Amino acid sequence: MRPLPSFHSLLPKPPPRISTPYICTRCLSRSTLPSRPIPPPIPFVPDVNTFLTLIGRSLIKHASKIPSWNALFTLTSKQLEAAGLTEARTRRYLLRWREKFRKGEFGIGGDLKHVKDGVAELRIVEVPRLTKPALTSTPTSNNTEEAEADGREEGMQEPQTQPQTYASANLSPGMLKLIVNLPLGQETYMGDPKDLKRPADYKLHRGTEIKGPFFEPQKGSLSTVGVVRVHEGMWEHKRGRKIDGGERRRAEVRAKRRIEERKKARG
């Protein structure tokens, strides 16, 4: 007898499979991504030339390749290379500082508000000392009437706390010395002391002097008044340098140097 056909053999055969090459497509492209915001200039960095001067590494010589402030924050690495910035390390350094500036991470003087022609003035001024309000105990509802009755009978008055005042040979009572950034020529601060904010990179030394990087004291002011100017490389991230061939070859280089010195000493 002929064997009965199986169930799978009775089903129709599928058509032959045709293999097609795998094609990878990009779902996103750089043109479809939203553009990054362009930060506005700050008083200490009003233009491209000042920005390139501050970050150093001789980038100021490439100022002609970046025509505007918008171009500084929109040019890609390929476009910078086509413009003439051929060194990859220089382009990476510029792009890194560009992103830091976009995030509000500034260097020395970036928080100064009153700057004219790249010069900001710092001055020590006296402002009223801010005092905390006195803490008074509030009686509970059960004892309020008893406390009022006791006060009327004994003729007692509520104690009033006076703010403490401090004075010294160089400080007026009730005043506080602070470092402020004022417009050039202005000697006193006319605003609210609560709005004052000390420059981030400068401190009051011994209560009478301003100390900080790139601070130039005014002659005869005993470091109570001075200016901060825009200098080449104020914000520069210094690169490391190899001493005697670096860590790997330092012992070898110094040993060879000692041998040469001994040979020269023997004559």
Shape: extended
Largest sheet: 5 strands, antiparallel
Q: Assess the beta-strand content as a share of residues.
A: 5-15%
Unreliable stretches, pLDDT < 50, 5 or more residues? 151-163
- Global structural class: alpha+beta
**Rg over alpha carbons:** 36 Å
- Rounded to the nearest angstrom, the distance between the terminal CA atoms is 115 Å
Mean pLDDT: 81
Number of alpha- plus pi-helical segments: 7
Helix content percent band: 25-40%
**Could you give the count of β-strands?**
7
Task: Describe the protein's architecture and organization.
- This protein is of the alpha+beta class.
- It is 26% helix and 13% strand.
- The chain has seven helices and seven strands, in the order H-H-H-H-H-E-E-H-E-E-E-E-E-H.
- It has helices spanning 7-10, 48-55, 69-72, 77-83, 88-102, 144-154, 246-266, and strands spanning 115-116, 119-128, 175-182, 203-205, 209-211, 215-217, 225-229.
- Strands 1, 2, 3, 6 and 7 form a five-stranded antiparallel beta sheet that branches. Strands 4-5 form a two-stranded antiparallel ribbon.
- The model is unreliable at 151-163 (pLDDT under 50).
